[in-house]
Design goal:
- This protein is of the alpha/beta class.
- Helices cover about 40% and strands about 15% of the residues.
- Helix 5 links the parallel strand 5 and strand 6.
- The protein binds NADP nicotinamide-adenine-dinucleotide phosphate and guanosine-5'-diphosphate-alpha-D-mannose.
- Guanosine-5'-diphosphate-alpha-D-mannose binds next to helix 3 and helix 6.
Length: about 350
């Protein structure tokens, strides 16, 4: 049985990736941070008691700040594949905590790569690189576009990108960078702009909120649907040789358009609810991200299926449903019609995955 280690398994992407790998028959190990409250909400639907003989998902305490623990984990799990998704991933927070962001997002990658090198374990390594690395570089951005990061987060990701390439060149390790453009879902962290908007729509409909404060509405992002992006991570590690790939939809929209579509879909007038608060504006903005994913399409056979309009609907429905509101149901329909077998609506588990994790789920 193939086994994989995921850092950042409790995050949006980590949870979807765990589902994908379980559905492919992997044993999945994830690094989680100790917290005084449960932080495994995104994994609850696939978690089974590790005492269960058929259990294939195992969680281990650890932190990207601590090399000794990372060496331990690599040495004892001896993973075939490592997906390094753990990071301080919020751009605005990185302006407030630049040193911490550098420690975890940049140096954390060195710690993990060096743990692999020192343990002598042969494994394939995926680095969660980001379109934030392009920053001020004019669109469209592809693998040849020079980086010009605009935040401590972007700069930390540039470092991590190069250190992954350095371990590939210096030690012959299989290290691939996925340079992913923004990808969202109902599991997106609530302080990223898309989820902040769709959560607010649901809260306004439920009478729990009236105003939504946002920052810059003019920045443009290339937004896709997260489960499709974790498929690309797996594909990268199945290639014969390691390489670096840009992943995005090739379509870009302003924050204002996301706001308009989300409110309109829910039958609300956004002008009555949305207000600007400068505190959400960044000291330096990334104005325009637009992927040129030609290489990924050609070499990985990866093409996104969910459009911007559909993404908005999936997320609004997800937030309405989680508040117990009756949603329009477009989201579930879109996923049924367009998405594959391993992931279905919101946190529901597909039959394929149920079979894979065994009777314990039932
Ligand atoms: P996310 O939801 O913020 O998840 C980040 C994960 O990293 C969480 O599991 C978090 O654990 C973990 N983490 C944070 N600090 C850690 C530490 N010190 N030690 C160990 N784990 C730590 O991010 P995401 O959206 O899933 O993104 C996954 C990765 O892809 C990140 O590296 C992100 O920077 C990168 N990326 C994301 C996008 C995107 O649009 N989503 C695009 C390009 C690249 P807790 O749950 O305990 O906080
Ligand atoms: N978070 C947030 N909150 N962003 C806002 C707000 C607000 O109230 N108002 C406007 N924005 C704008 C930001 O200024 C930015 O231009 C855009 O919305 C997107 O912000 P986020 O959703 O926070 O995402 P991001 O693009 O900065 O970063 C995300 O994508 C990167 C890939 O490009 C994160 O997931 C990063 O981890 C990821 O690497």
């Amino acid at each position: 049985m193939q086994n994989a280690l995921i850092t950042g398994i409790t995050g949006q992407d980590g949870s979807y990736l765990a589902e994908l790998l379980l559905s492919k028959g992997y044993e999945v190990h994830g690094v989680i941070r100790r917290a005084s409250t449960f932080n495994t909400g995104r994994l609850d639907h696939i978690y089974v008691d590790p005492h269960t003989p058929s259990a294939r998902l195992f969680l281990h305490y650890g932190d990207l700040s601590t090399s000794s623990r990372l060496i331990d984990l690599i040495y004892s799990i001896r993973p075939d594949e490592v997906y390094h998704l753990g990071a301080q991933s919020h751009v605005m927070v990185s302006f407030e905590n630049p040193e911490y962001t550098g420690d975890i997002t940049a140096l954390g990658t060195t710690r993990l790569l060096d743990a692999i090198r020192r343990s002598g374990v042969t494994t394939r390594f995926y680095q969660a690189s980001s379109s934030e690395m392009f920053g001020a570089a004019p669109p469209p951005q592809n693998e040849q576009t020079p980086f010009h990061p605009r935040s401590p987060y972007g700069a930390a990701k540039v470092y991590a990108y190069w250190v992954a390439i350095n371990y590939r060149e210096a030690y012959g390790m299989f290290c691939s960078n996925g340079i992913l453009f923004n990808h969202e879902s109902p599991r997106r962290g609530p302080t990223f702009v898309t989820r902040k908007i769709t959560r607010a729509v649901a809260h306004i409909l439920a009478g729990k909120q009236d105003k939504l404060y946002l920052g810059n509405l003019e920045a443009k992002r290339d937004w896709g649907y997260a489960p499709e992006y974790v498929e690309s991570m797996w594909k990268m590690l199945q290639r014969e040789r390691p390489d670096d790939y840009v992943l995005g939809t090739g379509e870009s929209h302003a924050i204002r358009e996301f706001v308009t579509q989300a409110f309109e879909y829910a039958g609300l007038d956004w002008r009555k609810h949305v207000f600007i608060d400068d505190r959400y504006k960044r000291p330096a903005e990334v104005d325009f991200l637009l992927a040129d994913p030609t290489k990924a399409e050609r070499e990985l056979g990866w093409t996104p299926r969910i459009s911007f309009r559909e993404l908005v609907r999936i997320m609004v429905d997800g937030d309405m449903e989680s508040l117990g509101l009756t949603c329009r149901g477009e989201g579930a329909r879109i996923l049924r019609e367009k998405f594959g077998a391993w992931h279905q609506w919101n946190n529901s588990v597909s039959d394929n995955l149920k079979a894979a994790v065994g009777a314990v789920l039932g």
